[in-house]
Amino acid sequence: LRNKKSNIAVIGDGSWATALIKLFTNHQVEINWYIRQDEILDKIKENGRNPLYLSSVKLDMSKINLSNDINEIICQSDSIVFVVPSAFFHSTYKKIVRENLNDKILISAIKGIVHEKSKIVSDFLITEGFSSDKIVAIAGPCHAEEVAMEKLSYLTIASENEVLAKDVAGILSCNYIKSSSSADIVGVEYSAVMKNIMAIAAGICHSLGFGDNFQSVLLSNALNEINIFLDAVYPLNRNINKSAYLGDLAVTAYSQFSRNRTFGAMIGKGYSVKSAQLEMNMVAEGYFGTNSIMKIVKNLNIELPIIQAVYNILYLNISPYIEINLLTDKLK
Amino acid sequence: LRNKKSNIAVIGDGSWATALIKLFTNHQVEINWYIRQDEILDKIKENGRNPLYLSSVKLDMSKINLSNDINEIICQSDSIVFVVPSAFFHSTYKKIVRENLNDKILISAIKGIVHEKSKIVSDFLITEGFSSDKIVAIAGPCHAEEVAMEKLSYLTIASENEVLAKDVAGILSCNYIKSSSSADIVGVEYSAVMKNIMAIAAGICHSLGFGDNFQSVLLSNALNEINIFLDAVYPLNRNINKSAYLGDLAVTAYSQFSRNRTFGAMIGKGYSVKSAQLEMNMVAEGYFGTNSIMKIVKNLNIELPIIQAVYNILYLNISPYIEINLLTDKLK
User: Fold this and answer.
1) B251, B311, B323: which is closest to B286 by C-alpha?
2) What pLDDT score does A101 carry?
3) What are A304-324's pLDDT values in tens digits?
4) What is the pLDDT of residue A258?
5) d(CA B113, CA B134)
6) Quick one: average pLDDT of A187-200?
């Protein structure tokens, strides 16, 4: 990617997609941007700004080619960046003619799980027949809004192909982005899924009146749970305190702006899942993540009390008050 | 402690001292409270409230005996809880006739270092000839203000004497306090010192305009630094993600109310150390901690970039802007 002028497809038009496009245009690349809705596409063409997300960001349109045809976008590109909400990844993927993806570099910037298959994106792509050598994940901790404001942020680029991970890290780096590479793509992807569930838990507890002392205990136990899960599904001598794990968890769980935390806060106030989703006009990624992780946990001999509590509240309709009070006895 | 009616001396009259007294009075204990200033002592006697700290807390005065004579207080007690600001611990200690402490249980609730000796409290007491078997430390994560409000909080009680640690944990537990015990008294004490320095760093970075993405990376790297330091001074197979380490760090570094963070924020805005201390009318514990930890690090072959940066800013007058920008290249 780094040495030649490269063509990158961006599949997605939310805030993180917009932030990544801003980063890519710092380099000598051409971006083929798939925009599903024509009215959005026209607005971007007209103003050089995404009207719905990070509209303060002026994009360098000389490097951006827009289309509402996902297969055309993919055929024009060497590397494909998937950056749709995880809930829509599978339906978006199904629009793509499988052969068009042959030999492409597949980059996931999706912070969630393919819930229809209960798989993280890299595992899903491997079962679709792609080589792990060509699969990359972009991990946080990174609120898109701060990238838009050019606040210093750190990214972790993970792939079993470490040369490729370093290449992608290079193309995302600039004076306000420091990127490092990691071979633990499975670990950083699962961690990104689980931190959303932990943010739901933090939101629920906030609404129930728990304070900062408790939230910090919840954070410690959440990180331990993520570590226990990762050790069980993908044992590796990883340092769970690195920013791709602990940092990503902390920025999500402590942020008042996290959609997952907001969703949890509504659940903690007594909203049903349906009414919270209606009110927010979106689906928090951790909602699906909870169900998928619980499916995976069934086959493992481990206990994840926080995830279990969130599952019981969201899927079994147990009262948050009762469930979290039971949880408090399991935390340390 | 637990089985018989016990006499506990509390040496200190700040918010944490007041919160601990509230907890002790839940049990069948008698508390001998050393109050240095007569006017404060009189006010407490009159109103059953500490006029300066957590004045919303009504204390059970039937269990509390007050005196301005520290040696009298100590002679009347089996267990001595030290809970003064670390900056005043050594001068307070020197008022005590050494023999009066013989055979007493010595409990430190001090979240800082004995800066005159560059030692944590337990190490200081051991060099004074006391047995580690009788020394206990009370560790967070625990803002006193939330204990006053009876918000669920978790304490870690550490001692090489695990039976004693469990006893003290029992006497501090109640429906809103869960206490667990640990043998890693050195680890939790150093961690409590270092988290204050990390909170200064977080405050400096906040004032320099760094955002949440960066703060979460700082938190990850801070925990790693604490772990590296603890491994060097006191190797142990400890889980640094537990609440006494990570939780205590998180609640301090992320809290807008942390005095250390506030101190750091003033330094980041350009205040000198002297003017920040004058403005705050107090000394942030992390200021002394920084100097002491750096003295200890000199004899160890490790690098602690965040602590070093804070030291360079506070003690060598390097500009926060320059120092933190150098630091950003060392974080991951």
Assistant:
1) B311
2) 98
3) 999 999 999 999 999 999 999
4) 87
5) 19
6) 98
Contact by Cβ (8 Å): B134, B156? no
State which amino acid sits at residue B95. K
Contacts A–B by Cβ distance under 8 A: 148
- Cβ atoms within 10 Å of B268's Cβ, excluding its own: 24
- Check residues B126 and A5 and name the one with the higher pLDDT: B126
Best B138, B149, B184, B217 member to test A by mutation, with max A CBs in 10 Å, is B217
CB contact under 8 A, A215 and B251: yes
The catalytic residue among B111, B134, B195, B242 is: B195
Contact predicate A279/A270, CB 8 Å: no
Question: Is residue A257 pLDDT above 90, yes or no?
Answer: no
Closest residue of chain B to A152, computed from CA coordinates:
B214
Q: What is the mean pLDDT of each run of 10 residues along chain B (332 residues)?
A: 72 96 92 97 97 96 97 97 96 98 97 96 98 97 94 98 97 96 98 98 97 97 98 96 97 85 97 93 90 96 97 98 98 94
Q: How many helices (H) and strands (E) does chain B have?
A: 15, 8
Report the alpha-carbon distance of residue B124 to residue B181 in Å, rounded: 21
Structure-token pair, residue A216: 């910090």
CB B65 within 8 A of CB B33: yes
**A211 shares contact with chain B (CB less than 8 Å):** yes
* Amino acid at position A73, single letter: I
Which residues sit opposite A180 in a β-bridge? A156
Distance of residue B247 Cα from the nearest chain A Cα, in angstroms: 5
Per DSSP, the residues of B93-141 read HTTS-GGGGTT-EEEE---S-BTTTTB-HHHHHHHTT--GGGEEEEE-S
Q: Is A234 on the interface with B (CB under 8 A)?
A: no
Give me the phi and psi of B116, to 5 degrees please.
Answer: -60, -25
Contact B216 A331 (CB under 8 A): no
CB B112 within 8 A of CB B104: no
Which pLDDT does position A3 carry in this prediction? 45
Give the whole-angstrom CA distance, residue A1 versus residue A201.
Answer: 39
Q: What is the pTM of this model?
A: 0.96
Please judge whether A240 and B241 are an interchain contact, meaning their C-beta atoms are less than 8 angstroms apart: yes
Q: Give me the residue label for tokens 């330094």.
A: B267
The pLDDT value given to residue A5: 59
Smallest Cα–Cα separation from B1: which of B39, B29, B31?
A: B29
Long-range contacts (CB closer than 8 Å, 24 or more residues apart) made by A40-44: A40/A13, A41/A66, A41/A67, A41/A68
Q: Which of A142, A209, A332 sits opposite B180 (nearest CB)?
A: A332
Evaluate whether ipTM surpasses 0.85: yes
**Average pLDDT of span A241-263:** 92
Task: Answer whether residue A267 shows pLDDT above 60.
Answer: yes
Task: Tell me what percent of the residues of chain A surpass a pLDDT of 70.
Answer: 98
* Size of chain B, expressed as the number of residues it contains: 332
Residues of B in contact with A254 (CB under 8 A): 212, 216, 250, 254
Cβ of B152 and A255 within 8 Å?
no
Listed residue (B215, B55, B191) closest to B122, CA to CA: B191
Chain B residues lying within 8 Å of A242, measured CB to CB: 220, 224, 332
DSSP B252-311: HHS-TT-HHHHHHHHHHHT--HHHHHHHHTS--HHHHHHHHHHHHHTTSS---HHHHHHH
Q: Which residues of A are catalytic?
A: 195
